[in-house]
Every structure is written in structure tokens, then in C-alpha cells.
Amino acid sequence: MKKIVSIVILSLLLVACGKTEIASLNTVSNIEELNTAIKDAKPGDNIVLANGTYKDFEIKFTGEGTEDKPITLKAETAGKVFIEGESSLEISGDYLEVSGLFFRNGHSPKTNVIAFRTSAKDVANYSKVTNCVILDFNNLERDQDNLWVQFYGKHNELSNCYIAGKTNGGPTVRVDLKGNQSIRNFHKIVNNHFGPRPRKGGARGETIQLGSSFTSMSPSNTTIANNLFEECNGEVEIISSKTNFNIIKNNVFYKSEGSVVTRHGNYVTVDGNYFIGDGVNDQYGGIRIINTGHWVINNLFYKIKGKNFRSPIAIMNGIPKSPLNRYNQVTDVVVAYNTFVDSDSPWQFGVGTNIAQADVLPKSEIRSARPLRTEVVNNVIYNSVGDANPIIEHDKADGVTFKSNIIYNNGVKIENSHGLISKELTLTDIGTDLSVPTSGYDDVEIYNGFDFKTITEDLLGNSRSKSNQIGAIVNSGSVNLDLLDKSKYGTDWYSNVVGAKDPTTYTVANTSELVAKLKAAESGDIIALTDGVFNISESLVVDKTITIQSKGNSEIIFEGAANTPAFSLNPYGKLTLKNIKLKGNGSNYAFASLKENMSNHFGLEVVDSEISNFNYALRVYKQAYSEEITFKNTAISNCENGIELSEETNDRGDYNTEYLTINNCNFDNVKQNVVDYYRGGYDESTIGGNLLITNSTFTNCGAKEKNKRLLNHNGIVNVNINNNTFKNNNVKFVSILWGAKNNVESENTVTNSGQIKTEENLVMTLMY
Amino acid sequence: MKKIVSIVILSLLLVACGKTEIASLNTVSNIEELNTAIKDAKPGDNIVLANGTYKDFEIKFTGEGTEDKPITLKAETAGKVFIEGESSLEISGDYLEVSGLFFRNGHSPKTNVIAFRTSAKDVANYSKVTNCVILDFNNLERDQDNLWVQFYGKHNELSNCYIAGKTNGGPTVRVDLKGNQSIRNFHKIVNNHFGPRPRKGGARGETIQLGSSFTSMSPSNTTIANNLFEECNGEVEIISSKTNFNIIKNNVFYKSEGSVVTRHGNYVTVDGNYFIGDGVNDQYGGIRIINTGHWVINNLFYKIKGKNFRSPIAIMNGIPKSPLNRYNQVTDVVVAYNTFVDSDSPWQFGVGTNIAQADVLPKSEIRSARPLRTEVVNNVIYNSVGDANPIIEHDKADGVTFKSNIIYNNGVKIENSHGLISKELTLTDIGTDLSVPTSGYDDVEIYNGFDFKTITEDLLGNSRSKSNQIGAIVNSGSVNLDLLDKSKYGTDWYSNVVGAKDPTTYTVANTSELVAKLKAAESGDIIALTDGVFNISESLVVDKTITIQSKGNSEIIFEGAANTPAFSLNPYGKLTLKNIKLKGNGSNYAFASLKENMSNHFGLEVVDSEISNFNYALRVYKQAYSEEITFKNTAISNCENGIELSEETNDRGDYNTEYLTINNCNFDNVKQNVVDYYRGGYDESTIGGNLLITNSTFTNCGAKEKNKRLLNHNGIVNVNINNNTFKNNNVKFVSILWGAKNNVESENTVTNSGQIKTEENLVMTLMY
User: Fold this and answer.
1) Which residues contact A363 (CB under 8 A, 6 or more apart)?
2) What are the UniProt keywords, alphabetically (chains A, B) (predicted)?
């Protein structure tokens, strides 16, 4: 169907205005029409993509617009044009604009979903993508990295978009600097809403990456401003700046488990941003600083509890004469006019020092170069609950100048204060759930560092020229911010706010009802089993959030084929199993992910249940991932294998779950892989996974374990084995803990089960 | 004596002009007056240093001038104010100008002669040193490094100065980037005459260094323009650019044994410079490129014979993920619109590749990363004598785009042409001793690379907007350059042009005449000995260029004390000894440098002579250096030690002479240190020293040599042992050659003297 509508009125109007160019408005509805329209497009032309769903739609938008007359490619109605299947958008030329598209239910067949180029030589300039959504547009496999938006060329813009749900490897957005056509690019990433990016389980989960170490000498001059980053939990870096002269300004980082990191490159300005935590979650971070010449000014840190790498201000140690892709020394950095409210130990220096590991790491990995010529000045700290250690020196901060910093510490004495000036301060409400100190210290002399005259405004944009004062906010009357009003960010048509929905509970009395209701239920619903036995012969597919529970006398007997699971955990499948007895035939599995095409995360929580007679209690395949896996008050018995999470062996720092929690469980006669949880590849900045085993009993387990360890958690960074009983397990070690990392054990009773050992340094594959 | 003259006329004039400020002109003649004048100086004031000699004069010039009213410190008459002894100049503040001073006969007690700061915090901005001379202002010891001009702060200038003769370690001029107060400095080094800097013998002999590897990420934006570099032979780097965004433009590099090197840092523009050689000396270099984003455009290379590191365009291999202080990969470099006339193999790629040395060097030293995304386009090569290999690939140039390059090769077939277009070209005279092709290729399509529109002018400043063409010069009518008219560079009062002077010959008939005339003679004179014996009891001091000769029947018998030399080679002492029999008493020396305070180089040439009966024929102490040492047609016999040049053991790549030449000599019964010439410290870019031993005979030598080697030349890069006879020398090796470097031997006859061995790789101390 051809449906090209030329709007003559527009040309008439133009003629009426004394102009002679005729701009056309073409509505197209398939790829051929689109390509023709693109081919014919002249400056000022508007190509309209008719409302509808476009499957396997690879757009190459090329053209030469002008500053006054861009060529546009728009959805007929913003948000009503769905790009699905194997689809992508590539743009090259000048002054091109794309708006209103919704990328969903699919993935890109290329390395990018949206690329600002159509070939290595043909890049876009002065072009933008605006008012679009990319949602869950993931590759089928987690290890198959890609990018959702890749910038090339110069002066391009990503604005007012909503982008969320990337689970596969690779930053969500990246700016590419390879080639002179892409340096000094002055790209703008503004007014977007970066919605939740789930924990990825390892590196390569940044939300925005500016360049790479290989282009870390290049001037980028990219601006990231006025965006909302909401639950961007992909990895430790939300924004990874790897080039020079970038500006990160006035963004809101809300409950995001990571930091803004000046990973490579230099002279980045991080100005006037809000880092907002909840006062509890210690994964929410602030700004981590590496390299030279960064200015960190006017930022507000609110209830940020991140530690060490994720502390509000983390200034790292460098590697002397560092290799290009590792850690340059911090020099000539300015941290000024920031305010910290109820954020623990907000200033940490020498972060990442690893001098103690000199024996197991090559010299080129030892971070011993402390910051030089760095100023931490004119900052305000407010602690409702006093903090004895607002400043932590992992290594000496002897190259740092501290001046004119003040603190309210609720009377708690400060160790190692570096001249912090104590003041009685109070909080002033400045908006929804946000109160900060804004006065009470105008008598403190402002430190006037080199070029500080360029800091002309405060966090709120108020002038600092008159009555300047320290801290992020100049005292300037009443303020009423609503930072989390999501209508201020992203598109004008999409919202990720979902209304609360009460779950529906389906009571099922037999297997066929169970199968039918499991299919019919919506995400979040509950399936309640009546008392009795449910014989299942084929795997139950879990592809949404679902709870399956009983009153305590329900039994599911799985009679399915060998090596198939009772519950097949599909993408998006988040299962809670409560109060169920689950029995196998000895050769099949209780729970398993798909072997492939795990294009999104699954989840598993097993409570008050009994799992017995399986080949595997849980088998998670290589590229499958769950943010959390929990077994609680549950017995696992008479299984050949227990909880198997060791197939992600790419040794790139990835692993199969972020949190594995085993609490008050009873393992009996599980012969091998009792708990097998693996992460490979040395990477100092990966902070997971997390293994908690507590209040549990292991008896007669591990007899067939080849390495003679009952609990295998090689490379997992956080391990806590507490208050368990290990009895009559025929192994040599209950566990070998990694002393240099956060691996601990306490109050365990070990009887006839070998020992728990700690090795300080683990010899691992270097990822670099 | 106080001599402050207030010039009221000036103020009257100002008043007459309706201005009310009074600028004063104070003439001062000692440090107290100067300091008072400086202390009292207001914008517009002129402080005048009265003509005369100022010894041990440490000037601290501080003040706050303005753009319209700088504060000046001037010589009463430019060139008549001599700063001598232990003296220095430090400047801090704004808009300060120093002019007309002559630094000579001394050295600085500080680390700089001129520094644009007075303390670590107090730097100069918008200030300049102009119309001054620094001549031979060397530290007393060669290993005592310093700088003659050190830039700090911003917007400072060194202009119209003459600077020459630095022999001690350290670049002549350096720009310091440590600290935010010194970045984006926009300093100017313009219109200067950098006169001869002698070969230093090792590294740390640059004429200008812009930053260091530790600040190689910083934007410098320094301009070096319109300077004459004449015989700047200090080391392989004339200009070592180690920061970003520098501009090196319209300079003349004349007979300078080195290159412009983008050693660290990126995005440097090398535009419109002249590299002029003599068609013979293969030490004169061009531009050596490391790192990212440099533009090398509009340059002319004329009769440059440098090879490899010194080739006209040397594009190096980098080290993958290089350490900060080593070699980053070349990426995104543009080499366009340059012209090469009679310059051998002007384009060399993969320079410095050392994959073959992977066994003896650590991985972090292996230069295996070839250039990427680099364009070599729109260049012209003219060879009067055809060159079969204009392009040399030490490693593959597979990351380089070659387009629109043309060559005239006088009919010689080209190997490996990478698309070079052959043309019949002729040379056009464009000035004194300079002729280049300027036409005959306007039919060749110009390659239009990214941003090439910014190349708006050619070498001569002619517009490229109309009738553009490839090569450095747009064909634009007759041109008459006089690049070597030295009046265009440096001061308006000093010239290094010296008139030719005929040497005076003094004939002396006895020892006292010899002693007297040696003292009285001027540099360049000749002392002729009559036939007969000259008994000398105290060392003859050589502190100028002098020739001592005879008709063949003169004998000098040195009866001086043990371990004292017949000829004491002092700074500046360059001795030619011709046709003399020189005998010692077995315990004293024939020739020796001073043990300390060798503040300038010496020289030694011994021809047609006989040296016998000494403890040492030649002993050169640790910090002494001669550019050349030559023994020709000379016998050295019955000495405990021969030629000793192995005391420079700092292992920083330094050595005691650049060229040691032994031709047609006869060594007999020299017991140890027969030839001992040492260079320590691994450094790929040190190209010396040079040992040539040819047509000579060694008999009964080396008996006491502890390491059982007759010829010791550990670490010397160029060794040629050719056509000699070695007979009955009780050693194990005549020589051990360093195969990986340029060590060769040929046509030697070795009888009962061990062997000559080649070791491919020498294990050396890494300097980094």
C-alpha cells in the first residue's frame, strides 16, 4: 500500500512567506516507501512513519538537512509506531531528526540498536533522536554484547527518550571517538529518562560510556545533562567517562547501584548533580575519580551509603606509569562546593590501593600512586547521626589540600578530621523528601582556588557572584524541588509509572488447572494449590512473576523426562514457591533456566518447601541470570546435584546471580555441586556476587564433589557463611574463603566435614 | 650608589593625554635597588638595569602589570647588561616583561636559569622574556641537570632571544604543566634563534620539551613558531612535545641532528616548517610521530638524510596498552601536503618495532601496535637521484591510507609504492640554496580528508582556497626565501655569525716558550714545535681550540707527577696533536680531562704521533665529554692503560664521547683498558655512541684486562671494527658485538687473540 501524502499547504505557506523552497511531508508505511522517501528527501522534508507495528525493520536514514531545515523522520503519532523483531536505526548525514519511535519486543541484528552512522565512513552530524523509547530490546543471549545507542560524528543529540531494561552485555549508550570525524563531538545526551537497568552480574553494564581507554586521549566534549537515572543498577559504573572535557551536569541519580566514574580521560566537569539514596542500600554510589583535572562541584549527595568504590567521593590510587587501560594517578582534581547529607564516610582516598597484593599481581596492577595537587574545599557535610569517620584514607591523602570544609556531626567526635570545621547546622526543606543545610556557615572564609572564579553558579543555578558561600547551595530563600517528577524527563508519551495492582489468587485443585492458570495468570498473580498431590509430566513454564503456594499439604511430583525441570525458568520468569513439597524421579530437575535465549533475567525464591529426589535442585545455564536466588526454610535432600550456578565460565567477571541466599535450610544427601557459584576473571571493580549461607545444616553432602569442597564459590567477592552446622560431609574443605575480598565465616559447627580455610590471595585470570 | 631617575616627562605626557596615572622609569644598578624598584612598581613602570656586569645576581621579578601597562625590567642598553656567576631570573605576577639581558660566564644556582614562577604557588601570567641571550650558562657538571628557561603559569612568552651552548643535562627550554595554573597555557616561544647545542652524549638534551609524560594528558596549547633551530644537536629530539594541542609552525630546523617528536600527548599541529639538511649528514632528522591525532602538514624536507628514528616522517609502532611513559599507538594522524626534496626514504612506518627482542625485554616494552586510521595524502616527493624505497615498512603500514601522493624519482623503479603516482617534475628556485617542485601535478586529484578544509594555507602562507594543489607549496609565482638570514630571529643586538679568522702560528723552540704561547694563543691558533726534545714537568692546560704540531722530529717528554696528564683537557679545550712523539714516565698520563667542573666539552685529535710509556694514554673522567676523539696514524705503546672512556656509569644512557675513531693506529703492549668505551641504560632512542676501529694493529695488548676482552664497548650503539690485525693478545674475546644494534665487524685478522663474538641481545638496565 502506497500512501504518500504531499502536503501542499505547507509549501503554499512557505510561498506566502516569500520563500520558494517546497518542503514535503511524506507518510510512509513500509521499508520501500521509507527508503524512497529518504532517498528523495530535501532539506526541510518531513517523513512520517504511519502508526503501526514494523517488524524486522532496519532503517537507514541518510540525508543532508540544514540547520534551518532539518530532514525529519517522525512517528505519525509519537509512541504509536512500534519497531519490533530484528530491527535497528542507522543515521548518517547532517541535520537529521528522528522522533516518536518505540523499540520493543525485539532486538537489533546489528551491534547497535541506534547508530549515528551508516558505515565506518558515513557518520551523522548535527542530528538527533528524540522522544523515543527503547524498552527491553535485548539480544537473546546475555554474553552477546551490543549497544543500544552508539554515537559517532559530531554535534548529535539523544534527548527526551526513555531507555530501560538492558540485560545483555554492553553499555546502554556509548560515544565512539575513533577517527577524527568523531572527536570534539559536543554530543548532547539531555533530558532523558534512563529507567531501570537490572544488575547485570559482572562488568559491561554501564548506562553511558564516553569513549574507551583506547581513545582516552581524545577530546570528546560530550554533555550529559538534565537526565534522570533511575535504578541504573547494571554495574558499578552508571556513567563511565573515558575521554576528555566531558560535562556531566544537573542529572538526578536516583537509587542507582553505581557511580559516575571518570574512568579514563581527563578534565571532566561533574557539576550540580543529585545523588539520591535511601539511607539503607549501600550499593548506591556517588562519584569515583581517576585521572587528571576533573572538577567535581555543586553536587548534592543525599543519604548515599555506598562504601569504598561506591562512596560519595571516591578518589582512587593510581598505578605508577599506568598502562593505558588501567589506573592513572589522580592529579589536579578539584572537589569543591558539594553538600553531603547523611551519607556515610563520604570522602574516601586511596580507594583501590592494593599494595598488599603485590605478591600475586604483576607490578603493572599495583595501585600505589596517591592523589597529587588535589583540592577538597568549600564542602558541607551534615550528619543527623554522627559519623566518626567522614574521611577515610585507604592510603594517605598527603597530596590533597583540605580547606574551608564544614561539618555538622551531631556531637560525635571525628577521627582524622583534616581540618573539618564543626558547626551547628539545621536542615531546610528544599522539596519532596529532600532537606539540606543551606545556612549557618556564612562566617567561614571561602577558599579561593585557581580559576574558582569560573564556578559562577550553585546547584540550583543561582549566582555565586554575590553573597557566595560554601556548599552546593547558596542560601537563597525557599526552594521547592520535585526531582522525581518523571514528567520532566524522557518522552512526552511514555511513563514507567505503573499503578499498584492487587494480585489475583487462583486456587487450583489438579494438575490441569495448575497448568491452565499458570498460563492465564498475569504477572504478579498467585496460584494456590489445594491439599493433595499434583503429578506433572511436563515442565511448567514460568515466564512472568508468579507465586505458587499451598497451605502446607500440597505435593508436586514431577515425572518429566531426565534433565528437564519441573519449573522451567524463562526470561522474565520470577517464581516464588511457598510451602510446597516438590519431588522428582531422580534424573530430572526441580528448577532450571533455559539453555539458550535467556534474553531477560529470571528469579527464584523457594520458601518453606521441600525439594527431593532430583538430579539437580537448580540448574542455571551459562548465559542465564537472576538478580536474586533465595532458599529459605527449605529442605533439599536426596539429590545428585544441589544449586548449580557455575556455568558462566567466560572469565570476564560475569556470574549467574547477584545474590544467592540460603537461610535456615537443610541439605541432606546432596552428592555434588551442593552449592556451586562461580565468577572468573580478575576485575577490581566488580563488586559481586554475594553468597549468604546462614542458619543451615548440611549433612551427608558432597560425597561425589571432585574438588573435595562442599561449598564452591570461586571468585565470588562477598561470601558470608554464618551459624551453620556441617556434619558428616565427606569433603576436605567446607569452604575456601578469599581473604583479600569480603569472604567471612563465623559461628559454624563443623563435624567430620573437613575445614573452613582462608586464602588471602586467589590466583585468577587477569581480564586485561 | 643610588641612581633612581624618575622620568617626569612621561607622566606629563600622560597627563597631557588626559590620563592621571604616573608611570616611573627607575634605573637601578644593584640588587637592593632592583628589589626596591620591583617592590614599588606599579602598572606601566619601567625598571632599567644600568649597563654593567652583575655577578651572582638572583633576580626575583614580581608585580602586577596590566595588559595596557605592563611592568618592564630592561637593560639600559640591550646587550650591555651582563648577568654572570651564580645568577638567575624568576618572574611571577601578571604582565611583566624582561628584555635586553645577557646571561654568560656563569650558571644558575637554581634548577632554572629563567623561571616563570617565584615559588610553587606564585607563577607568572601574560609575561615575557624578550631580546635576551643565554650563552654557555652551564652547570659545572654535565650530570647536574637543569633547565635554562622553564615556563609555568599561562600566556607567557619567550621571544627574540638567542640561546645556545647548553652542554649539561636537561632540555634547554621546558614548559611545565603540573597544576591547573599551568594548563591551557597558550605560551609562545617565537622568533628565537636557538643556536648550536652540542651533542650531549645520551638523553636529556632536548632544545624544547613541552611537559612530561606525567602531564601528557594535559592541554598545553603552546605555540613554537618562527624560530631558527641551528645545529641543535643535543640528542635525537630537538622538540619533544609531551602534551596536547601544541602548535609547531613555520620554524626552520637547520642542520640539526634530531627531530621534532610528538613523544607524548596528542593533537599536535606541525605545520609549515622547514627541515634543512646537507644531503650528507644522516643525523639530521624530520618529524617522529607517536600517539594520536597529530596533523603534519605543509612541511618541507630538504636534503634530509636521517634514517629510521630520524627519517623525515617516522611513524612509530606503539606498545599495546602502553604504560604512561612509553609508546602509545599512532592513531588518527594526518600527514598531508608535505614536500620532500632529495630526502632518503622519507616515509617510514613501524619505526621502533622490536618484536624480535621479545625474549629479553618485558612485554610492556614491545612495540608491536601498528598505526591505525592514519592518512598520508597529498604529498610530493622529488628525488634528483632516484630512491628505490621511498616508503619503508619496518612493520606493516596496513592501518595507513595512502592517497594522491606523487613522486619524481628520476626513472628509478619503486618498490612498495603504496600508490605513489610518478610524475616528471622539475625544481624551482625559491630562495638561497633552496629549490623545490611547485608545479606539474595540478591534474592530480586532491584527497579531501575529514576536516581538510581547515588547511587553509600553504607553507608560504598562500591561500589554498583557490587553485589548491598537493605538496607544501601552492604554485604561486616567484618566491625568494632567505631562511638563514639570522637577523630575522633572536635579538636585535647579538649575532652568532663570526668572521673567518686565519689562525696564528707560533713557533716555539723550548718548553717555556711552549707554555707561554699555549697560554697566549687564541682559540684556533697553531703552535709549531721546532725539532728537539721538550721536557715538561707540569700539565699543559688546554682550554681553547689549539693545534700543537711539529715537522716530525719533536718529542715531548712529560716528567710530571703520577696520575697527572701531559695535556690537561679543560672545558672548551680542543687539542689537535700532530706529528709529535709524546713520552711519559710510566705512571703519568698523556691526556686527561679534569676530574670535575667539566662545564663544557673538550676535544682531542691525535695524528701522526707516538704515545708511549704512560699509565693512561687517555683518561676521561665521569662527567667529561668530547663530541669527537680521534687517533689516526698513531702508535700507542708500552702503556698500562689505553683509551679510557668508561667512567660515565650513571646508566642513564650517557657516555663520554659521541665518536671515538681509531684509524691506522698501532697498539703495542697496552696492558688493559686498551679501548674502553661504555654506555649504560637501555634506551631505544639514544643513537650513540659511535666506535670506529679500522686499519689498525693490536699486538701484545690486554694482558691485564680482567674481563678478558680486548675492545670493550658495552652498550655503544654503533660499532664498526674493520680491517684490523689482532695478534698475540692474551684475551678471550677481541670484542663482543651487540647484534640487535648496529655493531659490525669485517675483514679482521685475528691471531692468537681469542675471537670476535656477536650477542644478539644485551641484557641492560631499563631506564624506565
Assistant:
1) none
2) Lyase, Signal
What amino acid occupies position B743?
N
Residue B16's SS3 state is: helix
pLDDT (tens digit per residue) in B693-703: 999 999 999 99
Q: Note the pLDDT of residue A765.
A: 62
Whole-angstrom CA distances from A589 to A569, A612, A704, B731 are 12, 10, 18, 80
Judge: A244–B217 Cβ closer than 8 Å, yes or no: yes
> Span A35-58, mean pLDDT?
97
Shortest distance, CA A220 to any CA of chain B (angstroms): 13
Q: Which residues of B touch A124 (CB under 8 A)?
A: none
Residues contacting residue B448 through CB under 8 Å, at least 6 positions apart: none
**Closest approach of B149 to chain A, Cα-based (Å):** 23
The answer to whether B25 and B6 have CB atoms below 8 angstroms apart is yes
| Burial class of residue A76 in the structure, from the number of CB atoms within 10 Å of its CB (0-12 exposed, 13-18 middle, 19+ buried) | middle
A552: its cell numbers: 502446607
Do strands B610-612 and A287-289 pair parallel, antiparallel, or not at all (unpaired)? unpaired
> What is the structure's pLDDT at A478?
87
Residues contacting residue B45 through CB under 8 Å, at least 6 positions apart: B23, B24, B25, B26, B37, B63, B71, B72
Three-state secondary structure call for residue A489: coil
What H or E segment, with its residue span, contains residue A233?
Answer: none
Tell me how far apart the alpha carbons of residues B361 and B355 are, in angstroms, rounded to a whole number.
9
Question: Chain B residues with CB inside 8 Å of A768's CB?
Answer: 321
Q: What is the mean pLDDT of residues A136-144?
A: 96
B740 to chain A nearest CA, in Å? 26
State pLDDT tens for residues A578-633.
999 999 999 999 999 999 999 999 999 999 999 999 999 999 999 999 999 999 99
Nearest by CB: B364 against A266, A331, A364: A364
CA atoms of A666 and A70, how far apart (whole Å)? 67
Residue B13 scores a pLDDT above 80 = no
Which residues does residue A347 pair with via DSSP β-bridges, in sequence order?
A313, A391
The Cα A378–Cα A464 span in angstroms is 13
Is B331–A178 a contact, with Cβ atoms under 8 angstroms apart?
yes
Q: How far is the C-alpha of A201 from the C-alpha of A233, rounded, in Å? A: 10
Please report where in the chains the cell 550553585 appears, as a residue: A458
Beta bridge partners, B188, equal B157, B223
Query: B545 forms bridges with which residues in the sheet?
Result: B574
Does residue A636 contact residue A212 with C-beta atoms inside 8 Å?
no
The residue among A686, A674, A637 whose CA lies nearest residue A753 is A674
How far is B536 from B515, CA to CA, in rounded Å? Answer: 9
Segment holding B598, helix H or strand E? none
CB–CB contact A293 B325 (8 Å): no
**Which distant-in-sequence residues (6+ apart) come within 8 Å of A648 by Cβ?**
A201, A622, A623, A625, A654, A655, A656, A678, A679, A680
**Buried/exposed code over B269-296 (b: 16+ C-beta within 10 A; e: otherwise):** bbbbbbbbbebeebbbbbbbbbbbbbbb
Compare all CA atoms of chain B with the CA of A122 and give the residue at the minimum distance: B450
C-alpha triplet B458, B461, B463: angle, nearest 5°: 65
Cis peptide before A688 (omega within 30 of 0): no
Phi first, then psi: give them for residue B498, nearest 5 degrees.
Answer: -110, 135
Place of cell 611571577: B92
